[in-house]
Amino acid sequence: MDNLKVEANDVITEYRAKNSQLEFDNTVLRLQVKKLQNKINELTADKKNAKKENK
Fold first, then answer.
1. Which alpha helices (H) appear in 1-55, and where do they start and end?
2. What's the CA gap between 18 and 10, in Å, rounded?
3. CA dist 43 to 21, 25, 40, Å?
4. Cα–Cα distance, 31 to 23 (Å, whole number)
5. CA neighbours within 13 Å on the CB side: how many for 22?
6. What phi and psi values does residue 10 have, to the nearest 5 degrees?
7. Where is coiled-coil annotated (predicted)?
8. Residues 39, 42, 47, 49: what is their CA dihedral angle, to the nearest 10 degrees?
9. pTM
10. What confidence tens digit (pLDDT) does each residue in 5-38 have?
11. What CA–CA distances, in Å, run from 53 to 12, 21, 31, 50?
């Protein structure tokens, strides 16, 4: 029975480590998406302003 507890603890520890890594990766991806969205908004704003100036 103690052997099962050790194996279960190993599985739980591995799960927590992988889950933590996934949460970190997810946070990094969210920040990258936010940065890209800001850049896209910046570029499209520049185009909109250029069109207004040409009119």
1. 2-54
2. 12
3. 33, 27, 5
4. 12
5. 6
6. -65, -45
7. 26-53
8. 180
9. 0.66
10. 889 999 999 999 999 999 999 999 999 999 999 9
11. 61, 48, 33, 5
Amino acid making up residue 48: K
Q: Which residue has the tokens 């507890």?
A: 5
CA–CA dist 9, 36 (Å, integer): 40
- The b/e string for 41-52 (b: 16+ C-beta within 10 A; e otherwise) is eeeeeeeeeeee
Half-sphere exposure of 25 (CA within 13 A, CB side): 6
Which tokens hold the place of 55? Answer: 């009119």
Residue type at position 17: A
